């Protein structure tokens, strides 16, 4: 797929996805939805990619949904001429929220995802950040879960992600008021891990991505990422124990583990040989299998 709304670049194991509609403050549309999903398919499939950075072109990260259609922007009947919503079941694929498709794809990523928020991140521009693993903001960044001020509800699975990232009370304050807030407030509320000068944003994101790419085993990182995210919905630590035990059992005899231990004992950098494309544990994805009976 060729991209019209973002750029895709890979350098030294780091993929950078740049939302690229700067004249629209990188406003989100259907093309961007499809292209982001495709881009994460690419990063997962490319063993050379060890980490993904998502940022924006120009002075904005993403100003939210493209509102050029005016009051009809979120109107199903207006978007789907000739197909009345009265005749469409809620299970129909066309009813699905586009932002949610993107956040679910990021959630499924096998590579760690770092958000580098360079400017305004509002609406879907804020909610698409939530399934990213680390978020770093420029001092120029602004955030807003503005849905109630537009007469619409939260989207992009944010009612699941946001309270898990920042806590229930903070999530409620930001979504019930719908106000736009500063990068410093986002940091205080634990939405972002740090705030840096604009010129330091991408170097900081790349330094973190480099730390992952240069020092860790890709398969272990992929499994750790999924284990942490998916345990947020577990009802007892025994569920984590089951998955931990299976992962240690399967990965303990892997070439990566032998290399990691040997390199440590020999006091040298490890060179992990396993590939995500070929060496994922047999029990992955464990949540879709009945592996503990």
What overall form do the CA principal axes indicate?
A: globular
Low-pLDDT stretches: none
CATH superfamily of the largest domain: 2-enoyl-CoA Hydratase, Chain A, domain 1
Distance between the ends: 42 Å
Largest beta-sheet characterization: 6 strands, mixed
Q: Give the radius of gyration.
A: 20 Å
The number of distinct helices, counting runs of at least 4 residues, comes to 12
- CATH architecture verdict of the largest domain: Alpha-Beta Complex
Helix content: 40-55%
Question: In CATH's first tier, which class of the largest domain applies?
Answer: Alpha Beta
- Reading the helices and strands in chain order gives EEHEHHEEHEEHHEHEHHHHH
- What is the fold named in CATH at topology level of the largest domain? 2-enoyl-CoA Hydratase, Chain A, domain 1
Q: How many β strands by DSSP?
A: 9
Strand residues, percent: 5-15%
- On the 0 to 100 scale, the average pLDDT is 92
How would you describe this protein?
The chain is of the alpha/beta class and 293 residues long. It has 2 domains: 6-212, 2-enoyl-CoA Hydratase, Chain A, domain 1 (Alpha-Beta Complex); 216-288, Lyase 2-enoyl-coa Hydratase, Chain  A, domain 2 (Orthogonal Bundle), CATH 1.10.12.10. Helix content is 40%, strand content 14%. It has helices spanning 30-45, 76-79, 98-107, 124-127, 158-166, 168-177, 183-188, 201-215, 218-231, 237-251, 255-265, 276-279; strands at residues 6-11, 14-19, 51-56, 113-117, 120-122, 134-138, 142-144, 180-182, 194-196. The strands form 2 sheets. Strands 1-2-3-4-6-9 form a 6-stranded mixed sheet, sandwiched between helices. Strands 5-7-8 form a 3-stranded mixed sheet. The radius of gyration is 20 Å and the shape is globular. The chain starts with 5 loop residues before the first strand and ends in a 14-residue tail after the last helix.
